[in-house]
Amino acid sequence: xxxxxxxxxxxxxxxxxxxxxxxxxxxxxxxxxxxxxxxxxxxxxxxxxxxxxxxxxxxxxxxxxxxxxxxxxxxxxxxxxxxxxxxxxxxxxxxxxxxxxxxxxxxxxxxxxxxxxxxxxxxxxxxxxxxxxxxxxxxxxxxxxxxxxxxxxxxxxxxxxxxxxxxxxxxxxxxxxxxxxxxxxxxxxxxxxxxxxxxxxxxxxxxxxxxxxxxxxxxxxxxxxxxxxxxxxxxxxxxxxxxxxxxxxxxxxxxxxxxxxxxxxxxxxxxxxxxxxxxxxxxxxxxxxxxxxxxxxxxxxxxxxxxxxxxxxxxxxxxxxxxxxxxxxxxxxxxxxxxxxxxxxxxxxxxxxxxxxxxxxxxxxxxxxxxxxxxxxxxxxxxxxxxxxxxxxxxxxxxxxxxxxxxxxxx
Length: 411
Hints:
Blueprint: E1 10-13, H1 19-30, E2 34-37, H2 44-54, E3 58-60, H3 63-68, E4 95-96, H4 102-116, E5 123-126, H5 133-144, E6 148-150, H6 157-167, E7 171-174, H7 176-189, E8 199-202, H8 209-218, E9 224-229, E10 234-239, H9 240-245, E11 249-253, E12 258-261, E13 267-270, E14 278-279, H10 283-289, E15 290-293, E16 296-299, E17 303-307, E18 313-318, E19 323-325, E20 328-330, H11 332-339, E21 345-355, E22 359-368, H12 372-382, E23 391-394
Parallel strand pairs: 1-2, 1-3, 5-6, 5-7, 7-8, 8-9, 22-23
Antiparallel strand pairs: 4-14, 9-10, 10-11, 11-18, 12-13, 13-16, 15-16, 17-18, 19-20, 21-22
C-alpha cells in the first residue's frame, strides 16, 4: 500500500500510538506525505465531520494498514503533521504547512533540537496520546537526534511511575492534569527517583501555582519548563526559574520569533518560513489569522495577553472566551488565576451565561473544599466588581479535553 500514497498526499491515522505509529509518521513525513493524526476513539459522526473537509487520500484504521504505509525512509521531515484544531469553538480545522524545502526542513529540526537539547542518549517518556502535536513533536525530535522513546500506554500514574524507575527517562512532556495525578499517586506510594530527568516541559492549559511549585521542588534544578503554543504554532518558552521571578509568565518569544500585541491585547507572533501554515481549504480563515509586520508574517489564534518591559508574556485568555459583562471585558483566565490561589480551590473554570441585565453574567465552576461564602469574600478582596463571579457551581471535577483544556462549552 505504500506505493499508493505519494508526495503531497494526505493520510489520516486513526490507530493508537505505538512505536509502529512513530515509524509510520516518520517515514511518511520524510517522503513528503502529509500525516493527519486523529483520535482513534472518534465516533463515526466525528470522523465524518473532521475528515470530509480534509479529504484524505487514505484512512489508516488498523495495524496492517499502518505497516503498509511505512517504509525504511527515516530522513528529515519534509512536512509537518496536519494536526486539527481542538474544535471547541467550531469544526476542527486542518493546520497545513505544505511541503517544506530542504533548508526549511533542516531549520525546523534544528530549532527544536537547539531549544530542547535533543541528543542521542535521550530517553523520551510519552504521557499524552501521539495524535496530539506536542507529544508527537517531542517523540520525533528525540528519534531524529538518535534517542529512544518510551510508550507506557494510556496515561496511568502507576504505569508512568514504573516506567520512570525502569527506563530512566531524560525528557517528558506533560499537561498540568498529568502532574496533578502523578503527585497524588506519589503522595500514596512515594516519589520515584527523578534524577535522570534533564527536561520536563508542560503546556496545554494553565498550571495551578501549587502544582507548578511542587514540580520545581521535585525535579532536578533547571530541568522544568513551560511553553505557550497552539496547534497552529509555537510562541514562547520559559524556564521555571524565570517563572519564579515573574509568576504567571509563559516566557519570552522563542528564537526566531517576535511577539506583537494589539491595543486590545491580541497576540501576534512573527515566525520563520518553516513555521508558516494555512487552514486547509479555508482561505478566508487563513487570511484572518495572518498579517504582515516589520519582522515578517505574523499569525494569531485570538489569544490576548500583556508584555512586560523585558518581553515576558502574560496570558489573559482567548478572545473567544472573553466575557463582556455590563460593557466591561472580563477574561476568564485572569479570574481563574486569582481565585485558584485560594487554598480550598483544587480546580476552577470561569464562564459566561446570558443575563438580561448585564448581557453576560460571570459564573464559576469550582472543585474543592472552599465554601461559597469564603470564595465570595476572597473575590471581593482581590477582584474588581465586574470580574467577581455572580454564580458559583460546585462540582466533583471539570470537563476537560485530553490535553487539559476546560470545555467551557459544557459549562
